[in-house]
Specification:
Chains A, B, C, D, E, F, G, H, I, J: It catalyses: (S)-muconolactone = (4,5-dihydro-5-oxofuran-2-yl)-acetate. Ten copies of one chain form a homodecamer. By secondary structure, the first copy, chain A, is an alpha+beta fold. Helix content of chain A is 30%, strand content 33%.
Chain lengths: 96, 96, 96, 96, 96, 96, 96, 96, 96, 96
Amino acid sequence: MLFHVEMTVKLPTDMPGEVAAEIKAKEKAYAQALQQQGKWRHLWRIAGSYANVSIFDVDDNAELQDIIANLPLFPYMEISVKPLCRHPSSIRDDDS
Amino acid sequence: MLFHVEMTVKLPTDMPGEVAAEIKAKEKAYAQALQQQGKWRHLWRIAGSYANVSIFDVDDNAELQDIIANLPLFPYMEISVKPLCRHPSSIRDDDS
Amino acid sequence: MLFHVEMTVKLPTDMPGEVAAEIKAKEKAYAQALQQQGKWRHLWRIAGSYANVSIFDVDDNAELQDIIANLPLFPYMEISVKPLCRHPSSIRDDDS
Amino acid sequence: MLFHVEMTVKLPTDMPGEVAAEIKAKEKAYAQALQQQGKWRHLWRIAGSYANVSIFDVDDNAELQDIIANLPLFPYMEISVKPLCRHPSSIRDDDS
Amino acid sequence: MLFHVEMTVKLPTDMPGEVAAEIKAKEKAYAQALQQQGKWRHLWRIAGSYANVSIFDVDDNAELQDIIANLPLFPYMEISVKPLCRHPSSIRDDDS
Amino acid sequence: MLFHVEMTVKLPTDMPGEVAAEIKAKEKAYAQALQQQGKWRHLWRIAGSYANVSIFDVDDNAELQDIIANLPLFPYMEISVKPLCRHPSSIRDDDS
Amino acid sequence: MLFHVEMTVKLPTDMPGEVAAEIKAKEKAYAQALQQQGKWRHLWRIAGSYANVSIFDVDDNAELQDIIANLPLFPYMEISVKPLCRHPSSIRDDDS
Amino acid sequence: MLFHVEMTVKLPTDMPGEVAAEIKAKEKAYAQALQQQGKWRHLWRIAGSYANVSIFDVDDNAELQDIIANLPLFPYMEISVKPLCRHPSSIRDDDS
Amino acid sequence: MLFHVEMTVKLPTDMPGEVAAEIKAKEKAYAQALQQQGKWRHLWRIAGSYANVSIFDVDDNAELQDIIANLPLFPYMEISVKPLCRHPSSIRDDDS
Amino acid sequence: MLFHVEMTVKLPTDMPGEVAAEIKAKEKAYAQALQQQGKWRHLWRIAGSYANVSIFDVDDNAELQDIIANLPLFPYMEISVKPLCRHPSSIRDDDS
């Protein structure tokens, strides 16, 4: 089941560089593991921002919550979630 | 080059049923042709709405404008556009 | 799986009374049937408005879309959807 | 009498972990006691967020204020309140 | 129990004068009857607008809904509702 | 002359408790003195918040500014002001 | 006593030209009479719009309401009102 | 002197095609004449919309108002205006 | 050429009193000098706030920027700017 | 390919002067280099603000992201991006 999640990162501007770098590294590893598992199906950067649009493929709302709430950058993010489903005009079988 | 486009359809409530049906049929054919060409890469319904999230793969802004402005439902839509690019944490090669 | 849906009804003010009454009757029957099936778990009126907060219990996003899009009042509604899941502090076993 | 309350928690990102943990523990105990009393009827997590939707069953506005204002996390919350009442299409007797 | 209700009237600009006058007359009679009953405690015009701020004194949310939904001008209003209760700094005994 | 003022208090979450308590005490004394003078006619708590709705009875805009700007909590408040006047449907002589 | 009023005119696009012209003529006469009386102290066009910023000098809120509500274009306007008073840094004696 | 103007066109969906075509033709001629005069320095389409971003080079606010208010599509537009001036980091001499 | 500028001051609540006082004194001197020069034509306090509405009379956008950007309180302000011009219904010759 | 980017700078008010000056100097050098390369085609100050409107000429979304994300002031900016393309009424050949 797919969810559209937009995440905007707002790190405190006075956060020491190395602390930020460490969190980002954890975030990258976390995101790549989930992509390998097929949970995090798409991850795009919104050009001109520090935000992304992601498409998650999860079993249910609870799994979505678990994945999002454990993002290392979660405390520094503004997040909006939209449940997706198959569009009647979609010709793709693998997109829902 | 990818663009994230969210389209919310607001048909006039007093539009005759057959007129609406005709426009929707044209829209479907239009959307499916573009999907077959690979221009309209993803088309999802936002659950609980008459809106969709789409990912377009076009050569440039002009082609995006041409595709969007010629949507049969264009006059009845609220549309927001976000340019996308590859996210540094994405593991997919085919997603930008 | 639970979804929180807020629906605000905005009927055209020039809609003939009997037309409105007919749609509302269909809406009521539709809503009560879904409540009997357990799909529409809660339906509350927001006091001082023509809006409701509902909790749906559905299998997935697609079923939510199917239920919402077929509401007789759907063309006259502003709708917002939030996916819900179990809260770690909830003591209820039957609330997710 | 029912109230729909949406609470979004925004803890300061520089709050020490143990301080946050202590407040959260108090919050959980506070919430569970009220649920046992039947005051806090529903408590759901909005998936993909640090927010909840709750339904309170209180005698009047004053009691709602007393409960909300004494939430340990109250100083760190954005809160919106909507008074609820029975919906004419609801088939449930115990839902208002 | 007190509720703060702000009502903004938006009559269709093409509504015939006499139709508008009739609804307004019904609205006035309805409002004055409720004021006499003590239900509608305060009714002020927001200067420079076609809106009012009202304070209702009702038994519960359901009674508020009943009063508001039956306002003759209800279909032409944007309404916001806030539950009120006694302020700890208020010196008035009769204001909650 | 009446003014509708909504005040939302946002104290810094890292403000020491005793500092906050002191300001609140001053605020209460200030508010109660003005109520005794008849300037601060109504003071209600918006249930579920740290905000109030107040009705001030002042000679003119300048007096309103003087009262509001000297609130001890003024630096920590979001404030909105609406000028009120007698509503044509009000049956009260003492409410404008 | 001064009030800052911003008015945005939104005439129905299907209003016959002569009807619009007639209302605008009435509006102009109404505005110029009030300016001559000194009630409508300033009237500026916001460049690039069909909106104005006006400064009214009235005895109280009720007079402001009377003037605004009787604007011939009132039913077609979005209006926002801000009460003004003398600024402590103003060097003008005639500006409050 | 430069002004940044964003214009979003919202034609009534029930406007007859030929009426719309006529207004658009007038708009195009009007826009191209002003471009030839150097008043309308830049005119870009916002991709995926029926909106444009324009840069006007005018003598003052009054001239801007005159140009904008006489756009054939003016009654069907939402317009926002921002005054521009030379940026201290700009290397262009001809861009203010 | 006139510009309507609304300025809302938001000083950090932890700014030492004497630092704030010093900046405010500079701001007052700066504002009064510009008023004497005729550049800052009107300066009103919005009653119930720490904000002002000002009307500037400047040669062009660049001069407006220079004046605003050099306000001592500039770093602590939210500012909105609207270009003004003569209203066709204004009877004043000196108001544009 | 052109992009319209609006950037609003919000430096922390407690940032030491010399730190701010250093970042601004880097920003200026960065901006001027890109202007010399033709990537940063227009850079205007929005009068009365610490914001700019810029037009970038880049090969694709990815290049836009690279340029924006590496702005020295990027962590202190609110940024909005709009893809542009040739307007059908534009008479300029070099403006898309």
